[in-house]
Structures are given as C-alpha cells and as structure tokens.
Amino acid sequence: MIPKADVHLHQEWSPRLDRVLARRAGRAPFDWSAWRGDLLAVVPPGMARLQRLSQVFPAPAAADDDEAFVERVADTLRESAEGGSIYTEVRFGNDLVLRPGFMELFRRAEGLVRAEHPVFYAEAIAAVAMYAEPERLAAVLDGCAARAADGLGGVDLLYVPYATEANWRQGALVVEQAAEAGLGVTVHAGEFSTANIAAVAQLDGVSRIGHATQAWRDPWLLDLLAERAVTVECCLSCNVFLGAVTRLGDHPLRRFREHGIKVALGTDNPVQIGTTIGEEYAAAAQLGLSEAALLDLTRAGVRAGFTSGERRAELLAYLDAYANASAPVSSRL
Ligand SMILES: [Zn+2]
C-alpha cells in the first residue's frame, strides 16, 4: 500500500462522537449516505452546501468527555492509518484546543494508533475563527501560542467573507503572531472563487492554502502559488461534493502540479462526505497520477506538515526507502 498523508482533515466532532457512542451502544451510527443524497438533491452547489456541513449534530457536546474525546480522535487516526496514511493532521475547534490537557489527550489517541501502526504520526492544529469577537480571538491566539510548547502544530484560519475578498490587514497580524509562536499557518481560501488566494499567498508565514481550487482560472495566481512555494491542500471528493468542481475530471490538481505548485491531499470532512484518504489517492490516480506522482503528494504533505523536524526526517526517510524498494529494476541499474 502506497504511504499517504492527510493534511486537511477536520475533526467532525459530532459525527465522530456519534460513531463512538453507536459502537458502545451496539447501534448503527447516523446515516450520512442518506443525508448526502438529500443534500445533493436539494441544496445548490457552493457555499450553501458548505454551510450544511456544520448543521447536523447526531451526538451531543455533553457526551464529549475526555474518554470519548480520546476514543473519537483515535477513531479518526485509525481510519486514516488503515487507509495507508503515515502522517495525518487534524483540525480542532478553539474550545477544545484551549481545554486543559488537550495535547496530552491528543497524544494518547495518537499513541493508541501508533501501537497498531508504528510508521504513523499525527499532529493537531487549531481552526481559528477570525470572525470571533476581538477579545475572544486574542484569547484563542494566546492559547494557541501557549499550546505550541505542548506540541500544537499550527493554525488554520477561517474568516468571512469566504468567497469574496476579505480584509487581510488584521489577518496579517494574526499570521505574524502565530508564526512568531512557532505555529505553522494554513488558510482556507479559493474554494468557490478566486477571492483571497493572492492576499493569503503573499502573507509571510502562510505556507499552505486549503483548497485554492479556483486558482486555475487565473494564470497569475498559478504563478504566484508556485513562486511563493505554497503547498495547496487538495480535497478531491469534498471539492466534487460541495461543487467547487463539477466533476472529478475537472479538478485542477494535475494542472497545479504541471505549473510547479506543491500539492498534498486531504479528506476534509470524511465522515460526512463519505471518503477516506485511500479513496482520495485513488481519485488522484483516476486523474492520471502515476504511483511516483502519488508518492510525491505524500512527500509534499510530510514536507509541509506542521510537525517536528525529527518526525519529518523520519517520515521522509521512510518514503525514500519505500520508493527505492518499489522502483522498477531498470531504474535501479
Ligand atoms: Zn476544510
């Protein structure tokens, strides 16, 4: 199985928790495939569909105690490792990240999965809502900076307006503060329009952009992403499901790569969308990527991952060993 990396994965706290509670109770979890069918039939593609992702809560927040948290994070990581991931990053909401002992609980979940999959590392990042009240945002950023010492890997910035140009004056300060704290910074941008891609790509400290799917519409944006060496996190199934592209074959992933843009893969909201990292790599193969190109996606994910230098070096060495062992004989002569 080709080693994979998932660098864009939301925690989906309630859908994951529902799976844990369902398993404990011996009942079936919420039926997301029926939900998907309804949504595709009724809701138009674009922002309207995106907003539906955060509207269904099959499990209550009150049930998310420490034990359930470890179990649901382990569920997320185990699914990823079983799909072949060697590096998985999970994005958490701010209340959780600020909770005492957050990183310790996360590492406990990671440890459970590492016991089953020794070549696997996971990191946690915080999804920061920039539209929060200023005092709240300041508290969240301070909290994230403090958690960096515990191993929090980075932040993912979410803001409004999302599909039209936002004001990045304040965003630049947020990026600066996060980078100073040693946190990696990724930003959601360019999923449904070209808005914000250029502004975000030009911020020092931003090394990754979640989606940037619409960058194909503007050659200058493609040049900019390549020049700034920003890694684009492509979530193929999610882009199709929410309508960022009409069909998989229209996805610009190959075009990005041909333009010299670094690309890695993500599952985004795998429970709700109904995907796994294995299926995302299969989708990339369907777009015509060779096994070597798929391995490049993993390398890009590990290189751009918000993890320690030590872990990165170990994972890259593993990928090199994998590539050498699986290279055709003729190329080894
Ligand atoms: Zn996302």
Automatic annotation (TrEMBL):
Pfam families: A_deaminase
Cofactor(s) listed in the protein's UniProt record: Zn(2+)
GO cellular component: cytosol
Biological process terms in GO annotation: adenosine catabolic process; hypoxanthine salvage; inosine biosynthetic process
Domain Adenosine deaminase: 3-321
Keyword Hydrolase: yes
GO molecular function: adenosine deaminase activity; metal ion binding
Transmembrane segments: none
EC numbers for this chain: 3.5.4.4
InterPro entries, alphabetized: A_deaminase_dom (IPR001365), Ado/ade_deaminase (IPR006330), Metal_Hydrolase (IPR032466)
Keywords assigned by UniProt, alphabetized: Hydrolase, Metal-binding, Zinc
Family: Belongs to the metallo-dependent hydrolases superfamily. Adenosine and AMP deaminases family.
PANTHER family named among the record's database cross-references: ADENOSINE DEAMINASE
Protein name per its UniProtKB record: adenosine deaminase
Recorded name of the encoding gene: add
